[in-house]
Write a structure and sequence with these properties.
about 350 residues, mainly beta, Neuraminidase, 5-stranded mixed sheet, globular
């Protein structure tokens, strides 16, 4: 007779939001905490409707550590050395780890402290990365371009898709995803090859594409609301979010090769060894998320859309670990792995901590 593994009890977390204190419940799969601890990694993810940055690590007792901070409509994440970049409604924040290697503060081995904020205005920042010159590069979705920060302006345009004729605050193609290769921007995803203001909305089902920035070639077409392209292990991985599929691009044939179907709208992607970590969201009841193949796939499987983190084994395409999320949080935008980290936290903008945590440079 075999004994069933007991599932960890769902952890309830209260989120400060006025007097209502809405709550959420997170339920990890039995092996998630051990998987994180074994690899000495933690996870960060953003949820923009509630405006929260979450950090998931492990405690000495083997249970998950869950930490959250409020950041207005936070979306893109980028980890770069000791820095964590977060795109918000009208700013890009750079957080720095305030601890020296081997230091500990109240049981936390990373304390991310906000250091620099670039005011971009509300340009609908999506993916963020950092290039080989330590420069933040972000997807400026409103202006349909890649951009970087400026000391004197809202942003500096770096590149626009070949099918967009001019810059303007019109979200013409819903440019959203960015993949870096060798420290340089290499591939982007867009919901449509549109040059009309918000023209992408008419092509959500199968108008999505991947553009190779080196020669402005469209290397993949026929996708449904693609997101989160990432270059990893000499392959381009991405989400075909409108179908619920995670997979890889065959750049020779211009085809998408699904690895896994996930019961949710996929966004956010990072890797640890043979595993991919991704975010699943419950599709909103709005025009942008309805009428997609994902709805039919869920109905066919008699499954409900989930809000969750999933760890997919790249060798089998199966779910190895997961973190189910219920309550006020219904969507995830980005996911990032924090290497050599067990239990991270971040200093917020309210309260006494930001007044008292002071570091002195050499």
């Amino acid at each position: 007779m075999t004994k069933q593994k007991r599932r960890p009890a769902a952890a309830k977390v209260s989120l400060e939001k006025g007097a209502t204190r809405p709550t959420l419940a997170v339920e990890p799969s039995p092996g998630l905490a051990g998987w994180l601890a074994e690899r000495r990694i933690a996870l960060a993810f953003t949820t923009y409707r509630v405006g929260k940055l979450f950090m998931i690590g492990t405690q000495p007792n083997g249970r998950l550590s869950i930490f959250e901070r409020s950041l207005d409509r936070c979306m893109g994440l980028a980890v770069h050395g000791q820095s964590l970049f977060v795109g918000t409604q009208h700013q890009i924040w750079r957080f720095e780890d305030a601890l020296e290697p081997g230091q500990d503060s109240g049981g936390f081995d990373r304390v991310y402290l906000p250091r620099v904020g670039h005011v971009t205005g509300d340009v609908n920042i999506h993916d963020i990365a950092v290039d080989r010159n330590d420069r933040p590069v972000f997807v400026n979705t409103l202006f349909s371009c890649l951009a970087t920060t400026s000391e004197t302006h809202s942003f500096v345009p770096l590149w626009k898709p070949p099918f967009v004729s001019k810059l303007g605050p019109q979200d013409r193609c819903h440019l959203n995803g960015l993949a870096m290769r060798d420290g340089l921007p290499a591939f982007v995803t867009a919901v449509a090859e549109s040059d009309e203001p918000e023209g992408w909305r008419e092509h959500r089902a199968d108008g999505g594409c991947v553009v190779d920035m080196e020669d402005d070639d469209i290397v993949l077409r026929g996708l449904s609301m693609p997101h989160s392209p990432r270059w990893y292990d000499d392959r381009l991985w991405l989400h075909n979010s409108g179908t619920g599929e995670f997979g890889a691009a065959d750049l020779k044939t211009g085809s998408f090769e699904p690895v896994s179907f996930c019961p949710g709208f996929l966004r956010g992607l990072d890797f640890a060894g043979d595993f991919a970590v991704m975010g699943l969201s419950k599709p909103r009841d709005s025009g942008a998320f309805t009428g997609l193949a994902l709805e039919e796939a869920l109905a066919r499987r008699k499954a409900d859309a989930q809000c969750a983190l999933q760890v997919i084994d790249l060798r089998s395409g199966k779910v190895a670990h997961s973190l189910s999320i219920e309550g006020v949080v219904e969507e995830i935008y980005d996911v990032a792995i924090l290497p050599e980290t067990l239990r991270p936290m971040a200093i917020g903008f309210q309260g006494d901590d930001i007044n008292r945590v002071i570091t002195v440079g050499a």
